[in-house]
Amino acid sequence: MAARTTNPMLTWTTLSPAVALVALVLSWGRDLGTLPVVVIAVALAAAVLAAVHHAEVVAHRVGEPFGSLVLAVAVTIIEVALIVTLMISGGPETSSLARDTVFAAVMITCNGIVGLSLFMGARKFKLISFNAEGTGAALATVTTLAVLTMVVPTFTTGEPGPEFTPGQLAFAAVISLVLYGMFVSTQTIRHRDFFLPVGKEGQPLNDEHADPPSNKATYASLGLLLASLVAVVGLAKVESPAIESAVAAAGFPQSFVGVVIALLVLLPESIAAVRAAQRNRIQISLNLALGSAMASIGLTIPAIAIASIWLDGPLLLGLGSTQMVLLGLTVLVSVLTVVPGRATRLQGGVHLVLLAAFVFLAVNP
C-alpha cells in the first residue's frame, strides 16, 4: 500500500495564519461578545505558535545570527505600526503609550525571555554557556538606547515634564538608528562569530541535525511568518477592549493594558527563545531577547519622532522614579549575568524575580 502524503498547504502551520487573518478582518472594528472573544483568543494563540514555527524554518535556512534578527525585526516593525496607529487615533491621552510599551518590552525581553531561557536551559544542562563578547555588546547597546531615550527626558529642561524638545527628539531618533545600524552590522558582518552558539568550553556549535529547507520553503515560511505576526498584533488590538474591561474589573491601572499587549506581541519570540534554550542554544535565546529589546527602542523612537509631527498633545518619553530603579537594577544584574559567559538556574531565577517585580509594581504602582 502506498504511503499517504500530506499536502504541505493543509498543515496547521499554514492554515493558522490564514484563519487568523480572516478572524482579524471579520472582527476588526466590531463590538464582540463573550464567545467571539474566546474564538479570537484561540486564533491568536494558533497564530503565535505558527509564527514560532515559520521563524525557526527561516532561521534554519539563513543560519545564525540572521535567523534571530528576522523574528526580532519583523515583530518590532509591526509593534511600531500598532503603537503609532493607537497614538494617532487615541488623542492626547495616549501621550505616554510609546514609553510604556517600549519599557514593558525592555523589561519582558531582558528579564522575562532571558530569565526563562537561562532557567530552562540550566535546568536541563546544569551549566550553560554563551558568548560574553557578543552578548555584552548587545547589552551595552540596549542600555545606551534605553538611557538616552527613556531616562534622559526626565531630566532635560527644554520642555516641562518628562519630554524632549523637537530638536532633542530628532537627535534621539538619529542616534537610535545609528546605534541599531552599527549593531546589526557588527552582528551580521564584522563579528558574526560573537553571536553564534557555543559549547561548555566556549567552542562554536554547529546545527548538523537536519538539512536546511529549500529556497521555496523558506520564502513560503517568511511570508507566513509576516502574515502570522500581522494577525498576532491585529488580534491583540481586537482583544484589547476585552483586556481593558478585565483590567478595570480587577481594579488595575489602565497602564497595565500596555503590559498585557506587550506580552502578547512578544509571545512568538519568547517561545522561540525557550525552544532554543532547551536545545542548548542559549546564544540564540539571548540574541532574540536583546535583539528584540534593541529593535523595540531603535525602531520605535524614530517612528514616533516622525509621527509626532501629526500627533496632538505632549509626547512623554521619560520614565518615573520606580521605573528607573527597575531599569537600573536590570542593567546591573544583566552585566553580572553576561560577564562570566556561563550561567546556572540562579541567574535565570534572579531575572524572573525582576520581571515579577515589574509586573507587580505595574499593578500596584
Automatic annotation (TrEMBL):
<feature type="transmembrane region" description="Helical">
    <location>
        <begin position="66"/>
        <end position="89"/>
    </location>
</feature>
<feature type="domain" description="Sodium/calcium exchanger membrane region">
    <location>
        <begin position="221"/>
        <end position="362"/>
    </location>
</feature>
<feature type="transmembrane region" description="Helical">
    <location>
        <begin position="217"/>
        <end position="236"/>
    </location>
</feature>
<dbReference type="InterPro" id="IPR052946">
    <property type="entry name" value="Alkaline_pH_Ca-Antiporter"/>
</dbReference>
<feature type="transmembrane region" description="Helical">
    <location>
        <begin position="286"/>
        <end position="310"/>
    </location>
</feature>
<feature type="transmembrane region" description="Helical">
    <location>
        <begin position="346"/>
        <end position="363"/>
    </location>
</feature>
<dbReference type="Pfam" id="PF01699">
    <property type="entry name" value="Na_Ca_ex"/>
</dbReference>
<feature type="domain" description="Sodium/calcium exchanger membrane region">
    <location>
        <begin position="37"/>
        <end position="188"/>
    </location>
</feature>
<feature type="transmembrane region" description="Helical">
    <location>
        <begin position="134"/>
        <end position="155"/>
    </location>
</feature>
<feature type="transmembrane region" description="Helical">
    <location>
        <begin position="101"/>
        <end position="122"/>
    </location>
</feature>
<keyword id="KW-1133">Transmembrane helix</keyword>
<feature type="transmembrane region" description="Helical">
    <location>
        <begin position="256"/>
        <end position="274"/>
    </location>
</feature>
<protein>
    <submittedName>
        <fullName>Ionic transporter y4hA</fullName>
    </submittedName>
</protein>
<feature type="transmembrane region" description="Helical">
    <location>
        <begin position="35"/>
        <end position="54"/>
    </location>
</feature>
<feature type="transmembrane region" description="Helical">
    <location>
        <begin position="12"/>
        <end position="29"/>
    </location>
</feature>
<feature type="transmembrane region" description="Helical">
    <location>
        <begin position="316"/>
        <end position="339"/>
    </location>
</feature>
<keyword id="KW-0812">Transmembrane</keyword>
<dbReference type="InterPro" id="IPR004837">
    <property type="entry name" value="NaCa_Exmemb"/>
</dbReference>
<feature type="transmembrane region" description="Helical">
    <location>
        <begin position="167"/>
        <end position="185"/>
    </location>
</feature>
<keyword id="KW-0472">Membrane</keyword>
